[in-house]
């Protein structure tokens, strides 16, 4: 009877742990989806802002003119703009094809509106009242542009958050000198190799597949250990020398990585730094003090 109770308790504990893990993964995935949805919604909101602004401009342009024929043309263009705006509001933010089509329509609306603005300015260049109205329209346009810029900045911030969330993360970085028997070297002068180990953290938002890791070993005098000066990779628009290049197959799960540097040069005591890069970003670093 005691054994049965123990088994029941263990099963309940395992179920509770499993439920907690599933809940955590669900919340993390849900957060990612929310951020992506927010990006799409911001792009759609930018377009709605522009369509609304253009429709308002057509109204104001109609007020400025006495030409009935031109007023009718402006009214038709305004109705077209309002129709496109309504179509945009009905489109789901995830419908890429419709969003693309409405973007093209928006460029056309912008070009047509610009041509009418030029015509009306030319017809009314001597009318001071209309000049003042034109200044007002331009001020409103600048305000709308400022609002659109703000939305663009918000979208860029979200883009950066999504990009950061998808980056690999190297943790638990270790450096250990090894002697000729593969054991820990007591003194740096006895080291025949440098063993570097680290963990690539689990990340369900990162792209899976083959990844190239670049490891830079920096000596106490700031020189980079390398077997060939042509061993370089691109980082922030410049070429950096690497010590070791490692290919891994990343699945999104936590992964242990080990690399070795064969010592063929004299190594001083002092501070050694390890820097790890992947996909054009630095994913981890650690410094080590070697005193013997």
Q: Outline of this structure?
A:
With 292 residues, the protein is of the alpha+beta class.
Protein described:
There is one protein chain. The protein is of the alpha+beta class and 292 residues long. It has helices spanning 2-64, 68-90, 96-123, 128-165; strands at 170-178, 193-200, 209-218, 232-235, 238-241, 244-250, 255-262, 270-278, 281-290. The protein is built from four helices and nine strands. It has a four-stranded antiparallel β-sheet with strand order 6-3-8-9, with no helix packed on it. The two termini are 60 Å apart. The model is unreliable at 22-31 and 157-165 (pLDDT under 50).
Strand numbers in spatial order across the main sheet = 6-3-8-9
Based on CA atoms alone, the radius of gyration comes out at 31 Å
Number of helices: 4
Query: How many E strands?
Result: 9
What global shape is seen?
Answer: elongated
Number of domains: 2
Name the quaternary structure.
single chain
Backbone structural class? alpha+beta
Order of helices and strands: HHHHEEEEEEEEE
Q: What's the main sheet like?
A: 4 strands, antiparallel
Whole-Å distance between the termini? Answer: 60 Å
